[in-house]
Design a protein that fits this description.
Blueprint: H1 2-11, H2 21-33, H3 36-43, H4 47-61, E1 66-69, E2 72-75, H5 77-100, E3 107-113, H6 115-132, E4 136-142, H7 145-153, E5 159-164, E6 173-178, E7 180-185, E8 196-200, H8 206-217, E9 222-227, H9 231-239, E10 245-248, E11 256-258, E12 271-277, H10 284-309
Parallel strand pairs: 3-4, 3-5, 8-9
Antiparallel strand pairs: 1-2, 5-12, 6-12, 7-10, 7-11
Length: 310
């Protein structure tokens, strides 16, 4: 009886490993974004759904994966071990998908995006995507966020990237957070305490709205000296010393500098860049482009954050 009992134990199936790719993807998103809330926005999930997924992963492993100290969120030693393996498993899953599914993808994908974001972050991603998937035709249009969302509501885009105020769960997947700064050329002479000369895009540009609201909030007078819908036009005017503009810190070109401290200008809140999918079932080509953008921009975001830390 004793020997038979031991034999039965040996042949009993082991419980399945809790390494569901969706759970691992959420775990990695929390680590990369530093909080459950920001991970939920990036994953286009509710915070309760994210918490439930991590609970499933922790219950399956029998280990806690996160510590909270002084409201900061850090992986436990077990979480740090899992992180490296999780990244490898997700990369392997993406590679398997690419070998099996991607070669057959074809069709038209309509993408709307802000011009500056497309120029800085998307050009290489879209070029690589086109080379890898020559049967997919990309139709990319650059415009202001308000126009992009209006056309998106009318069904003119499969995917749209747009800018919004940092907020809680509101639909879409957060792919980037822009840290904004006041920028000018060394040629700018601004010794008098008069109105700040501004170089801005026309309404309804979100940077224009952000700049004017920040100045009005502290009672700082301003005047708009140059307006252009073109990013290149704005940067040329600022390079010439006409005035001050607002740019994301990672987009400040050579020849321009931050003047926030020098001119005692108010701090600007961050801006979110969000990817939204058209309602209903996306085509495989559109879904593949969405995943490609989220993955590639996420890596860019981690690289930028690593540089800021060091």
């Amino acid at each position: 009886m004793t020997a038979g009992f031991r034999f039965d134990l040996e042949i009993m199936p082991k419980p399945p490993l809790p390494f569901d790719l969706d759970l691992l993807r959420t775990f990695v998103a929390i680590v990369d974004n530093g909080s459950f809330t920001r991970a939920a926005r990036r994953m286009d999930l509710t915070q309760s759904a994210v918490s439930l997924q991590i609970k499933r992963l922790e219950d399956g492993l029998g280990r806690r994966l996160f510590d909270r100290e002084d409201r900061a969120l850090h992986p436990t030693p077990e979480g740090e071990i899992l992180l490296g393996y999780a990244r490898q498993m997700l990369a392997l899953g993406a590679a398997a998908w690419a070998r099996i599914v991607e070669p057959e993808v074809s069709g038209l994908v309509r993408l709307g995006t802000p011009e500056d974001f497309a120029t800085t972050h998307l050009s290489d991603i879209l070029a690589r995507f086109s080379r890898s998937h020559p049967q997919v035709a990309l139709e990319v249009n650059c415009d202001f966020t308000v126009h992009l969302l209006d056309d998106f509501a009318k069904g003119r885009y499969d995917l749209v990237l747009f800018k919004r105020e940092p907020q809680g769960y509101g639909g879409g997947t957060e792919v980037w957070r822009e840290v904004l700064d006041w920028v000018a050329s060394l040629r700018l002479v601004c010794n008098d305490p008069g109105p700040v000369p501004l170089v801005l895009a026309p309404a309804p540009d979100i940077y224009r709205k952000r700049a004017l609201a920040a100045l009005d909030a502290v009672g700082q007078s301003w005047r708009i000296v140059y307006t252009s819908p073109s990013l290149a036009g704005l940067q040329a005017a600022v390079q010439a010393g006409l005035g001050v503009t607002v740019l994301p810190t990672e987009m400040i070109p050579p020849g321009l500098i931050s003047v926030s401290s020098r001119l005692q200008l108010p701090k600007l809140p961050d801006t979110e860049i969000v990817l939204r999918r058209a309602p209903g079932t996306l085509s495989p080509a559109a879904e593949l482009l969405a995943v490609t953008i989220i993955t590639a921009i996420g890596q860019q975001s981690r690289d930028v954050n690593d540089k800021r830390r060091f």
